[in-house]
Amino acid sequence: DQQVKQNSPSLSVQEGRISILNCDYTNSMFDYFLWYKKYPAEGPTFLISISSIKDKNEDGRFTVFLNKSAKHLSLHIVPSQPGDSAVYFCAASARGGKLIFGQGTELSVKP
Amino acid sequence: EAQVTQNPRYLITVTGKKLTVTCSQNMNHEYMSWYRQDPGLGLRQIYYSMNVEVTDKGDVPEGYKVSRKEKRNFPLILESPSPNQTSLYFCASGRDRANSPLHFGNGTRLTVT
Description:
The complex is a heterodimer of chains A (111) and B (113). Chain A contains no helices and eleven strands. By secondary structure, chain A is mainly beta. In chain A, a hairpin with a 4-residue loop joins strand 7 and strand 8. The model of chain B has no long low-confidence stretch (mean pLDDT 96).
């Protein structure tokens, strides 16, 4: 039972345009959500996070939106750059030590 | 430099031969965890540790053991590896819990034949 789902395995976007990566979850006990970015042959790196008491968090070109009623979060990258090409994972936690990741979305930003 | 170091980067072994993948962090983090990455399944948590001598199961703990005798080290032990444990493994550490921004190692590619 996949509690965190990223239904788009891949996304292709033109440089300068907006990239929108989506993530759905099923467990209403999740209270914190994070996005990680992964380049080939490297470990994931933390990108941005959001607490369930908020509906938006922004950090430079990256914004995460949380819709609790729909159990949906999205990551917006504006403007997209070729260096943003990577696999993006969303993750969710419900206090303590458990962390559940989605399957990942491979973003390709074309010049 | 803040880092999580995993060793080895690549490992090929045979079914049943015990192995250990080491993980060390230099950030004095309380929280450490192990994940495996498989195609189409994303990252799945194997075990985590909230502090020294405190470990707990993640989503896929079967066939794995861990220990946390010191704050900086969190080795992953496969007592009797099987081919379905062929995967890419990542160790991570965070300040105090899973929702802390995690620092990941560069991964260990394990093949069990």
